[in-house]
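Q: I'm writing a short explainer about HTH hxlR-type domain-containing protein for a general audience and would like to include a description of its predicted shape. Could you first generate the structure from this sequence?
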Amino acid sequence: MTSSAKGKQSDISLAVCGYSRVLEIISNKWTALVIYALENGSIRYGEMERRIEGISKKMLTQTVRKLEWNGLVQRHITPTVPPTVEYTLTPLGESLLQPMRELRQWGRENYWHVEAARANYDLTYCKESQSLTN
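A: Of course. Here's the predicted structure. Afterward I'll give you a sentence or two in plain language.
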């Protein structure tokens, strides 16, 4: 869809863009880490909490519930005392592993470029702001 100077029409929409809807599900940093924790199979809640540095019980609970609501994770409760709760990726969740792995690999290979760009930006614009105040 093209846009004119008079009647500019949007051609990108949050409401209908499939990509933005997927990003809504996976863009939280904890979501990605929970998916990574589950990539090798079922895991108990406590083990997942120990594996994911910095996550609180509240945030882990909210994250796995959201993933369960979205059909990416399945919760299994074994009626023991106390109950044993394990989480597993569903087939839909497993289908997300490959793109998530590719994103992780991209980060490993390229994040240093991001850091260099940030440093260059800061250096450039810090100099500009300093010269404007002098």
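A: For your explainer, you could say: The first strand starts at residue 43 and ends at 44.
Q: Perfect, that's easy to follow.
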